[in-house]
Amino acid sequence: MDNFRLILIMGLVFISLLLYQAWQQDYAPDTTPIESSYTPTLVSETPTPLNTDAELPTPPKDVQVGAVEVPTTEATRLLQSSSRIKVETDVFKITIDTTGGDIRQVGLIEYPNKRETPEDPFMLMNDTLPNLFIAQSGLLPKESAPTHQAVYHSDQSHYKMIDDQLKVILYWFNADKSIKVSKVYTFERGSYDIDIKHIVENNTVDNPWHGRLYGQFQRTESDVGQNSFTYTYMGGAVSSPDQLYEKIPFDDIEDNSFNDENRPGWSNGWAAMLQHYFVGAFIPKRDQVDNYYTRMLPAGQRHVLGFYGPTQTVAPGEQHTFQMTLYVGPKVQEKLEALSPGLELTVDYGWLWFLAQPLFWMLKTLYEWIGNWGWAIIILTIMIKMVFFQLSAASYKSMANMRRLQPRLVSLKERYGDDKARLNQAMMDMYKKEKINPLGGCLPILIQIPVFIALYWVLLESVELRQAPFILWLTDLSAQDPYFVLPVIMGATMLVQHHLNPAPIDPVQQKVMMVLPIVFTVFFAFFPAGLVLYWVVNNILSIAQQWVITKKIAGNVM
């Protein structure tokens, strides 16, 4: 933002962008072909070595796999529950239910709900309404394998990490105990990715076991944990060889538009549920073909997103291990990128990601050097200002020349009155004679807008800035300024820029331009402090540069 017009243009661009994203979320037409009323009851796979129809459960028509949970006496709980297993690591407080061995609650110890209460971890997952979000996994078919409806057993009800690794083991047996399944969660110190194994032991004499692995999320559409003023994407996403990051909004899950019986399976993908700063992602075993699906469960308006793998055969007396990874934690790009290609794109910088990612890298590098995100934002702002110094100078020179001509333009307005045709012609003749392009300041501004929008998303989306302190009263750069000091300073800088810019000839436009700083002050009062800090610093730098240039060309500045 180099001047008052840039503030106005960027403000309008941001508002338009937010409105467009909201419209896309609610009203965008579905472009996914739907060739049948197919619902993914785990019914097809590529390749298909066996008759899959015979392998799959056949629940009643009004009950889909994953929809058989029965409400308990708690009005806010929809899921069946047996006994609970508490798991504590250095980064997690997790609750596992023996029904399905589901992960029902996930508290992130290093990311407290509020900075003032560090002992209260942010609950990324929970199994009660309104913010229901759980991770389920199991094996099919349910006649001979434990789905997320089966009840497991465990030797302990509480696990706590002592060494660098912690294993939580649950057991399931079929009716005659000829099939044993061990569900093993492995936690590593300092890690948010959880290794999940289903170890199948076939203890029969002559009956091979056939089954497949699946994993799915259940989630309600809740704004818990979301910023109420600035829009960030919340919903599902998958990755495929054709598209590393494909959003699946809740609306697409509700209308079943993602599912297509002609959609092939693919390898090296993932399925995720996103929200501001955090993500849950199932990452299947590499180099195996998996199918991805969605489903809507009407009770509690739960949205399901998951995958299922190929059928495996376990010979009598043998065992087989199904393996996958579950990530539940902050959207830290280097950790996500190391897990699976494209997973780092869940840090959703929008269509300007190719600009945003280098900006984030620069910001993070500055932070590692300085140790304070606020000062890192200030230095990055100065660096960006230096890069665009010459473009800004060209814009300010054009404005200074327009300011120099301002008295003559007012005189023309008085001479021609309401004759707009003659007034415009006289103004163009004057511009031509003075060799001034009235639009000379626009191109430099337009070139810089993509960079500023990209930086907006960097400061909004990066979890590293969550609850990051700066100085004095600014204890959280991801939250609004509690005393509105920065927005007021920004409004004051906008007023200064207004006086540096050539005033519009039209009195109505003059009044509108005078009111805009107040409007934008109110608008930015609800923005995260880190964003407002950037705008304030950039405004101050712009004022200094513009004042020098205007004084040199136009003489009297204020």
Number of helices: 13
Q: CATH fold name of the largest domain, please? A: Beta-galactosidase, Chain A, domain 5
Assembly status: single chain
Largest sheet: 9 strands, antiparallel
- The CA-CA distance between the termini, in Å, is 21 Å
Q: Judging from the principal axes of the Cα atoms, what is the shape?
A: elongated
How does CATH name the architecture of the largest domain?
Distorted Sandwich
* Portion in beta strands: 15-25%
- The secondary structure category is alpha+beta
Task: Describe the model.
The chain has helices spanning 4-27, 52-55, 250-254, 333-339, 353-370, 373-387, 389-404, 406-416, 420-434, 442-461, 485-500, 507-524, 529-554, and strands at 84-88, 92-97, 102-114, 117-125, 133-140, 153-154, 158-160, 165-173, 179-188, 193-202, 209-220, 235-239, 246-248, 270-275, 278-284, 291-297, 302-308, 312-314, 319-330. The chain is of the alpha+beta class. It has two domains: 4-16 and 356-554, no CATH class; 31-348, Distorted Sandwich (Beta-galactosidase, Chain A, domain 5), CATH 2.70.98. The strands form three sheets. Strands 6-8-9-10-19-15-14-12-13 form a nine-stranded antiparallel sheet. A five-stranded mixed sheet has the order 4-3-2-1-7, with no helix packed on it. Helix 1 (4-27) packs across helix 10, helix 5 crosses helix 6 (373-387) and helix 6 packs parallel to helix 13 (529-554). 38% of the residues are buried.
